[in-house]
Amino acid sequence: KKHSGKKNLLCQLKQHKLLRTLTGSEEPFASLGWQKLVPRQPLEEAISGPYRTCAVVSSAGAILNSSLGSEIDSHDAVLRFNAAPTEGYENDVGNKTTIRVINSQIMADPQHRFADSLLYKNITLVAWDPGPYSGNLKKWYKSPDHDLFSAYIEHRKRSPSQPFYILHPGYLWNLWDILQSNTEENVHPNPPSSGFIGIILMMSVCENLDVYEFIPSKRHTTLCHYYEEYHDFACTLGAYHPLFYEKLLIRRISTVSLDELIAKGKVTLPGFSQIKC
Ligand code: NCC
Fold it and tell me: Which residues, given as ranges, of the chain have pLDDT below 50?
């Protein structure tokens, strides 16, 4: 049976059994007692879905003046990234947050006040740090990009009932492999962006996904984030992260007219449960 390129790609993503978090059962984490530290419930269960509709909100400056806030909030679950606030930006980005995907900088850099900030409370947290492509977890534990491990231990002890997970580096590099195997050019060997990680994560738990301003709309701008006055077009196209290729791939699997894409910066994706392979 011949599949279209799009269906092939969706099935590739679905069949990868992608979603993996640290369970504490692998070394060096097992010896360090992490099986007792990580939440007992797997992430898929903790996210109290399955959700029918989900929104993923990129942090791009181009979402300013979109007035998409109430549309975003009408979804069953809303995913946001890193330190992206809602307060003061409700009209454009909404105010509901169900899940936050955070990189290890957020946990390690004191400027983010990870332990105290309200941004990280009363929601599900999913953190990531790349780790080596080889999958050597001992090496990773000794030298993560940013030290997320001590902040994680502290946070788990302080708020044991908050669902808080660290993605397995294998999940990130699996995503990277899929990106590379569907791209003609050589993708640079850096992990995918939080945006791409969050989109694929939500495809595992949502029936239907609306992704906002990941692919730039007609409002595209050099303004990096909607919440700060900083201009750099690399935020949208990528420098460290293979963001450009991520966006091409998401465009390929989306079902949305070019008109809506350009007007709203919105793409719609099916959840894995909706894809028959
Ligand atoms: O900027 P960042 O990402 O927090 O944005 C979250 C996700 O939104 C999408 N995005 C953002 C801006 C933009 N103009 N266009 C976009 O499409 C991307 O998909 C992005 O992933 C990250 O991926 O974790 C990143 O984090 C920041 C930074 O660490 C955090 O904001 C915390 O301050 C990185 N910036 C720097 O390291 C300076 C960024 O490279 C990636």
Answer: 1-3
Q: Is 189 exposed, middle or buried (0-12, 13-18, 19+ CB in 10 A)?
A: exposed
Residue of the nearest CA to atom 39 in ligand 1? 235
Could you list the residue range(s) of the whole structural domain that residue 26 is in? Answer: 5-274
Q: What is the pLDDT of residue 2?
A: 44
In sign, the C-alpha dihedral spanning 208, 45, 23, 117 is positive
Atom 18 of ligand 1 has which residue's CA nearest to it? Answer: 195
Would you state the pLDDT for residue 250?
A: 96
CA of 184 to the centre of ligand 1 (A): 25
Amino acid at 16: H
CA 10 to chain centre: 17
Number of helices followed by number of strands (H, E) in the chain: 13, 9
pLDDT at res. 17? 66
Atom nearest to 102 CA in ligand 1: 24
Q: Tell me how many domains the chain contains.
A: 1
Q: Which amino acid is at 275?
A: I
Residue 127: which CATH number?
Answer: 3.90.1480.20
Ligand 1: lining residues by beta carbon, under 6 Å: 58-61, 81-83, 103, 105-106, 193-195, 214, 224-225, 235-236, 240-241
pLDDT at 74: 98
Give residue 218's pLDDT.
Answer: 97
Following CA atoms 55, 12, 135, 33 in sequence, which dihedral angle do they give, to the nearest 10 degrees?
Answer: 50
Give the per-residue pLDDT at 52. Answer: 94
Nearest CA to ligand 1 atom 37: 105
Measured in Å, residue 89 CA sits from the centre of ligand 1 at 18
